[in-house]
């Protein structure tokens, strides 16, 4: 068995194997990610990069907060001057191997990213001004906050000791072919967890000391500037795939779940010492995308009828059973309601068309009839008297199934025939890319930014319309040019209406030069979304974290600024969690 | 001294000598046929608790899949309160799931699909096995036998479950018949080999040789002498195969490898399991009842496969038949 | 030791009072419960077996010969119930052993050490996956005998049976021909030097030549090893070449017992006579052979009166009423027939006619 | 005997079995069993030939070759002058193969396995009727079956006909098999140990029945047995012949009385010795063979196959293989001793006084 | 192997498409530019779709046969052989564990129930075995998890060793190892219990054989009869099935390891299915096939050891 389990030299001391369990021990146990034996730490290698573990093991440069701002995390300062963003690094951070952490460690990564495809990159140059300063210049003018957002949620995970040689090679490369060769080399470079330990290639507050397929052992890195903040000497990350988190929690074997809220249904079975610590209005929503290539879904009244016919409340109720915490959106705007005020204003929002969040069969019927559909034997038939069936596609992950199932049942009971296909997630993404169905369940994943650009992204996690230079309609048949009523909230186009180009607008939104422009464009897009219903958003999920509040003191609202992505991990990495 | 014409004449003579037989009436014959082929098996079955119990359970499921589907409405979300506990209300005796769908209705509406799957799978694997086995057994020693057996051996070496998983993962079949076919493909080789060896040993029986010497056409020999002997064996294996198909299909649904479109016990278990039914007592029934169904259906099949043995046994059947003379068994040889 | 004479039942024969009795069988019954009712496959049998004799038991198939013989080792197959008495008298005046009352472990000792049995199905009496040698050595081992000495003895016996000991011992059973297997089995039966050897149709599956050869060998063995042999067959001619005494079974009971000569020439039971007449014989003109008519009896249905009466040409009213008792016809020759005195007339034997001898 | 006066005649027929072990047994040598080795025999109308010999000597194989159920490796088998296998393979034979098939029937040793256990007797018996009398109605076909069953003593036939084989006793099963073989009105029936499985007391009855039916149908029998006295009973009653087989060859053949009374071949003598009689033949107790066991049929002794066991063997028997020496009216033996002037008599004996090999 | 390659070709969308969806579904909330992704994937997978199929096939076969090279996993960017070698011992461990547990018990029970045919013990054990045979093994796994791991915490619910246990040859580690493997092994072992029924059937048949009766008549010891006569001969007809059964038990790892989150070959394959990591999928399938081939081969070779009758004549 020797190949598969690596024995760390040094710290193999036996610490008790149960985590929370009432007895205050000195180890913080929490679930995250995949087994450390399965992952590696070169971020350029695609498949098995340790996405989740990096969150705990590397310092983050800057973070986006729920108020829409982007502020330094590791950085001392970030300033914008014209097209240039200046990043100032602190001097007192170290890699676990004792090397100083300098701006170059981050710079190497930035430059590699840029140089892999310099033409396509939005960055003109990155410059290492001195050991602790980087100047980053964009090709085009961009709103300052968006320039900062560009480095938000990025990690110092490219130690110069490892990556500098690749940067040099890229710099020396004469053409794209040679650059691709370097990229390929990078793709095949692997940094195993063992190597991470041996060479000390991390820089977070907690350092990896050992691992096996069912845990990653962490010890406080005493040379870290925050080392004095916390009294927790050790932590352990239990891979989510190696153990059933729910049963760990029920048996009180974990102390925290860093970016998951405990749902009502879980509350019942979890021990009392585990409590939700912090709740966050998160940036992710879920939606159903309509494929306009289906002749019926291409008709606005039909889409609207669907919006009336389904009961968002009960869809969300079903999801809550599966552990989701969230609520249906009040308005179909594509944006989280938390940023409505900031970008739309309540007047604007109030004017928008109201789609019911609970079932409105009459409304739906009226809409169907308006479009010339009639009901026959309880099922709707089209104006030609033909029956039709929508293919609904979803992934077989639990949450997705829950929502789609209810959605589907409600369409059926309304008289719209559907055939639901629940496929494994990889197959689902495959079909999704080619839009092989009429209605799809899909996340609406915004970057960790509470900013309209994150919601109006023209890709399939956003509101994909397609590449506007490619024809008159995108992959889902959504037109590149369409007309909406001139008046906000009007249900029909009267008069000439306003012609808009949603795809183009979405693509241009990130380079809006002023707040005002951002707001204007956002309102246009929101009005389009609200009027045309290209997608139907059905839940706004919440995030946060729960933990063992008996044994540990964990920061909650007010204690620290936590209104950012993965608040539990953020607290942990900042040394804000201590034992009681 | 003898020629074909006088042969019939000879037999005719015999007949004339003792022509006092009354031709049997059609009614008597029919009665006997019914007695032997329907009533006697029933009587045998009623003697064998395994066949009886197995048959009864299976019958319940068949009813569920036919009458039940007609009687009980297709469940949809919101039919009833969410996660109602079992045995509380008549409208949802087994409780409801997180969608508020009554569990019993889901179980019932999943049954036709399961049967379709079993049917397709059993037909494919057992049928294929029988054809290959009989063919190669009957052509023993010829090239076709070698080819078929080599092919069979090759397939035997491919481990069934992983292959099925890979195949279903690739083709993502949604139609229950297709699922059954896919699940059936790994199952036939072992059976084919056994059928072949059975055919080989039946062929050794002198009654087959006698038939050949009597000039009975090969097709008749196959049908009368060989297939009739194999039938019980094939049926028993059909039951065993069916159980296996249930296991595998439900397993693949349970693990989320097969795409699901309609109700299925495995899907229910999958949803419940993914919903952490194990750690949440109020959800447990959502998991337990489909499990119970799987258990009962396969239990009935296992029992049947054991009980069928006696059902197909002519000796037992004859003993339970009414229309043969009572003293028949007295003269039977002890062997 | 002639005290075993049982005057009351008249079962012992005075003519042989010099011989000892090895087995004394009284009121022996073997029954099986079947779904048609109780099946009595040995019925009320009384029999004495003398030391160093060869007793032949004949009778048609299914008449209970095997059942009777297996009671001597208390080895009736499982659902069968044995009742009555089977007493074994060890040589040299040891205490009589009541075989049916032996405990499991006593039985294990008794079997094969005192009485060995060679089976009807010799072909399948060996464990197919064990060499012949293993069968010998395990028998010796489990009876706590000296294995080396025992194996030497086994070699000797095999040689006496015209077998090459090394070849046979090293062979797996499937490598031996039927005749060789049968002889090896006889050797296995003798390896513990038992007093009594019960042989249940040991030759039925063999060729004539082999059968006859084995019979010759058996005669020699019996002398050499001081055996008492009980030999069961339905092949009457063969038996007459070996047996000192014959017992004829019909319908699960012994209907006639006596010295071989006596039976051949003065058979008193109609069934015995029928059997003798139906037996093909090269020396007898074909015209004289007859067949036995009728069906064999069913162990479940008790035939009232003499069980042979449905097939007996001499049967009359009285035969259907009462069961004929065993009567002594001449010393050592007993039979169960009301008309044993008339049988000579009614059913003349071939031997009577022309007196071929 | 000329072949046109005979029903079937075989000429120099050999049947060899080669077991080629198949794919997996590449390394084992092919073994050839000469089950039948150059045998010629004629069977006439109304003839009865009893074939006896030890187990494995090739009786069944020869029998099957004679009725055209086993294709000979070499030699010819003719049915009323028509080569059976040519009839089968040729397009337009003089006598169609199906006619031959009909005329040559078989009764197997084990009546239990000769009837399909899953079919009622009626079904089993109707099959050949359907084949041979396709024009008759079902009822008409049934009539002869019932008549024949009554004839062999299975009465009431209507009842028997509806039974399954296991509901009959062995004797009754064997009679049904006999009836089945007679249904096609055959010219020759191969009775392959047809009575061995029966109880001793039933054998004579069965043989009598066969003979009775022979008279009725004019059928010939090839009666295979390993029991000399049974063979003799049947053959003698029918005035037939007997053939003694040893390791694939007929070593002695002739009218039954002659062979029994005056056996020529040492092997026949041994068989006669081995056939115990109820009465008499006391005294001749010495084994008339030197070895009890039959040699390996795959690797047979040189010269006369019987020489290793023969108490009268001489040097010449070791190397040379005697032909069939016919003495008088059809009685022949494959032994030099049948020829009083043969050089055998000058050859040195290989047997010493104790009967051991010198 | 040919089958594998056939399937490889049958994959919808081909490997690059698969890779893309894998990354799309895994790369976290940051999202990724599709164009960029496409370029990377081209580089990454090194697939040269211009080659005719038969050339690709020959190359694949050559690599597998000559170099034991099963290609590289798309997703893990690691040689498939390495990945498999890491996982294989663990699956071997639990399946042998299961096999030893399941079959030894089945054989013993089979013989015992045959001995005591129709007794209460027999009907009891037989019913239990029939019932066990009616429950899919993965459900047994789930039930075990529920009762032994969640309700009672006797056993861990997943993983192969406990957290906090030092790796090495120490008692804690060994116990943890065994405890973690116990539930998966038991649930795989259920597969083997069907052997008890056939064993019982065989043993009953053997009990009726003359040689067993003769052995009893010979006064042999019961243990000898039970092992050398009954056991040995009853195993014969199912011996090959047994060995194929090993492969079957091993294959069940695909489901069991997923249910117990036990990182072995099965889970590797399962992950490969989920991530459509075709080289890995093919690799695992080939290894599964190789194992069952080996089992059958070993069965063939050893069969003559336990049954002398089939060995080629020595004479
Ligand atoms: N296990 C059994 N259960 C019930 N009845 C049995 C059993 N074994 C034998 N019998 C019956 O017991 C009777 C006597 O059988 P037994 O074996 O003693 O006959 P046999 O004289 O030895 O016959 P054979 O000459 O055929 O060996 C037969 O009627 C048989 O059907
Ligand atoms: N189909 C076959 N394949 C190979 N060998 C065979 C085949 N049939 C018979 N033999 C061999 O041919 C030889 C003669 O067999 P055959 O059956 O003719 O003997 P037999 O005299 O009828 O014996 P028995 O008295 O036992 O029936 C035997 O050695 C036998 O093993
Ligand atoms: N970018 C994606 N692939 N998102 C899909 C998965 C979303 C991910 N699990 C998350 O919550 O962040
Ligand atoms: Mg017997
Ligand atoms: Mg034969």
TrEMBL record, chain B:
Primary localization class, coarse: membrane
UniProt-listed GO biological process terms: transmembrane transport
Pfam families: BPD_transp_1
Record field: compositional bias (Polar residues): 1-11
One CC-aspect GO term: plasma membrane
Positions of the ABC transmembrane type-1 domain: 115-305
Subcellular locations according to the entry: Cell membrane
PROSITE patterns referenced in this protein's UniProt entry, alphabetically: ABC_TM1 (PS50928)
Keywords: Cell membrane, Membrane, Transmembrane, Transmembrane helix, Transport
Record field: transmembrane: 51-72, 114-135, 147-171, 245-263, 283-304
UniProt KW Transmembrane keyword: yes
Region (Disordered): 1-23
Keyword hit for Transport: yes
Mode of membrane association: Multi-pass membrane protein
Entry's family note: Belongs to the binding-protein-dependent transport system permease family.
UniProt xrefs under PANTHER family: D,D-DIPEPTIDE TRANSPORT SYSTEM PERMEASE PROTEIN DDPC-RELATED, OLIGOPEPTIDE TRANSPORT SYSTEM PERMEASE PROTEIN APPC
Protein name: ABC transporter permease
Naturally occurring in which organism (per UniProt): Halorarum halophilum
Record lineage: Archaea, Methanobacteriati, Methanobacteriota, Stenosarchaea group, Halobacteria
UniProtKB/TrEMBL annotation, chain C:
Topology relative to the membrane: Peripheral membrane protein
UniProt signal peptide: none
CDD domains associated with the record: ABC_NikE_OppD_transporters
Name of the protein in question: ABC transporter ATP-binding protein
A Pfam family of this chain: oligo_HPY
GO cellular component: plasma membrane
Domain of life: Archaea
Any one of the GO BP annotations: peptide transport
Biological source species: Halorarum halophilum
Keyword Membrane assigned: yes
Every ABC transporter domain range: 25-276
Main location: membrane
Localization, UniProt: Cell membrane
GO MF entry, a single one: ATP binding
Keywords, comma-separated and alphabetical: ATP-binding, Cell membrane, Membrane, Nucleotide-binding, Transport
Keyword Membrane: yes
PROSITE patterns with a match to the protein in the record: ABC_TRANSPORTER_1, ABC_TRANSPORTER_2
NCBIfam families according to UniProt: oligo_HPY (TIGR01727)
Automatic annotation (TrEMBL), chain D:
Positions of the ABC transporter domain: 8-272
The name this protein goes by in its record: ABC transporter ATP-binding protein
Family: Belongs to the ABC transporter superfamily.
CDD domains: ABC_NikE_OppD_transporters
SMART domains: AAA
Signal sequence bounds: none
Annotated GO MF terms: ATP binding; ATP hydrolysis activity
UniProtKB/TrEMBL annotation, chain E:
Sorted UniProt keywords: Membrane, Transmembrane, Transmembrane helix, Transport
Pfam families linked: BPD_transp_1
Organismal lineage: Archaea, Methanobacteriati, Methanobacteriota, Stenosarchaea group, Halobacteria
Ranges annotated as spanning the membrane: 90-115, 127-149, 181-199, 242-260, 280-299
GO biological process, one term: transmembrane transport
Superkingdom of the source species: Archaea
Chief localisation class: membrane
Name listed for the protein in its UniProt record: ABC transporter permease
Domain ABC transmembrane type-1: 88-299
GO cellular component: plasma membrane
The family this protein is said to belong to: Belongs to the binding-protein-dependent transport system permease family.
Protein's membrane topology: Multi-pass membrane protein
Record PROSITE patterns: ABC_TM1
Keyword Transport set for record: yes
